[in-house]
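Practice set, problem 2.
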Amino acid sequence: MSAPVLEMTDVSREYRGLRPLRIERLAIGAGEHVAILGLDQVTAEVFVNLVTGATVPDRGEVKIFGRPTSEIADSADWLALVDRFGIVSERAVLLDGLSVIQNLSIPFSLEIEPPRDEVRVRAEALAREAELPEAAWGRPLGELDRAARMRVRLGRALALDPAIMLLEHPTAEVPRAEAAPMGRHMRAIAARRGVAIVAATADEVFAGAVATRVLTLDAATGRLADKRGWFRRR
C-alpha cells in the first residue's frame, strides 16, 4: 500500500451512544477504495467528523495526509483541509427549488440565476460524470427520485477535485437494484481520478461493488476485520 492518506490509531470518541466509537487501527492508501461495515448512520457521522478534523478524538490519533488533526490551527486551516474531501451524504444540503445544474454550480459560484457560461460548463461536466440524464439537468431537484438526488450529491462531492471521497450511507434511500451499479460507478470514477474512497455503509452489496477492501467494525473493541474472503465465498 502507498503512504497512507488517512490513519487512525487507538481512536475513541464519545458521542452519547451505547459505547464510544472506537477504531483500533485503520490506514487508507492514496487511491485505495475501502468500505467499512458496522457503522450506523449516527456513528458514521461521528466517523466522518473525526476524519475531516471537525472533531478530535478523546483518545488516540487521526492523521490526514500525514498530519494529525489535533494540529489544525484555525478555521482557515481546517477549511483548506476539508476542500480535499468529497463527502457524499444525505446531510449535504441540496436546494429542491433549483435545477440540477444550479445545484452543481454552487461549489463554483453563488451566482447561479443563471450560472455564468464557464460555471455552467463545469456543472454540466459533473452532471455527465455522475451519469445524470441531460433531460433532468434543467428540472427542479425536488422533482427527481432519490437515486438521481444521490447522483447530484456525487457530482457536488467531485466538484473541487478531492483526494478522498467519504461516502456516508449513500444507498440508504436508494432502491436496492441500484446499489451495486452505483457502487461500481463510484469506484470507476475514483479509479479514473486517482481518488481514495472510504465508504461507511450497512449495504454489503454496495460495499462489495465500491471497494477493493471491505472491513467490518467490532464496535466493542474497535477492531476492523477484512471481509474479502467472505465476499469471495458469497
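Problem 2, part (b): a different protein.
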Amino acid sequence: MKDVSFGQYYPVSSYVHRLDPRLKLLFLIAYIVAIFLASNFYGLAACAGVLVVIVIAARIPFGKVLRAVRGVVFLVIFTAALNILFYNGETVYASWWVFDITKEGLIFSAFLALRLVLLVVCSSLLTYTTTPVSLTDGVESLLTPLKWIKIPVHALALVMSIALRFIPILMDETERIKNAQKARGADFESGNLLKRIKAMVPVLVPLLLSAFRRADELGDAMDARCYTGSGKRTKYKKLRFTWRDLIAFLVGAALIAGVVLMKIYLPAPY
C-alpha cells in the first residue's frame, strides 16, 4: 500500500501545477475518452506522448510517476493473461486443451495493458499536481448547475476532499500497524494466500478503529469551528482561467481530434 500514489500531492512549482483545477479535471476526462477512442497503437502512442510532455512540464520524476503502476501490476498481468488465453484469433501459435495462444490475442493483450497503464498514470498525475483543496473547489465549480435541482454540491465536494486527504494518512497508519505487529512476531509474507489473508486481520481491526477515531476527531474539530455547509460560502482563492488554461484546452482538443482521425484512417492491429 505504501507504493500507491493516488491521493498524494507532489509540491513543486511548475506549469501544470498552476493550471486551473477545473481544466485539469476536464482534461483528464478528455484524455480518458481519447484513450478509449484509440483503436490502434498509433492512437495510444499519441496519448503516451502527450503524457510524457505533461510529466516533463510538471517537473515530476518519471520514477515517481511510474510508481503509480505498481499498485495495479497484478490487475494488468491478470487481464493480459486472460486475453492471451481466451482471445479468438486466426494465427495460432500454441494450443492446449481449451486455451489458444494467437497472434491477435498477444497484440490485443499488449494493447489493453498499455491502455490500463496510461489510465492509471494520467489519474495519478491529477493528484500529483493538484492539492485536495483545489481539487475540491474545481469539482464544486463544475457541479454548480446541480445546485439548481437542490443537490448538495458543496457537501459532495467536501466528502471527496476528506477522502483524498485520508488516503495517504491511512496508508501510513497501515504501515505503522504492520511494523508494530511484525515486532510482536507477526508474519505477513510466508504461507499460502489464505494464511496471508488471515494474517491481515490483526491489521484491519486497529486500522478501522483508527479511521473511525480520526473521523470523529475531524467532526469535533469542524463543530468547534462552527463549520456549516449551508449558506453562501465565500472563497479565499477564486478560480480564474488564464492563457495557460487556454493552451492546455487546445492540447486536449488536438489530442482527441488526432485520435479520432487515427481511428478513422489507420486500421486496428487485431
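Answer key, part (b): Residues 21-265 form one domain. The mean pLDDT is 81.
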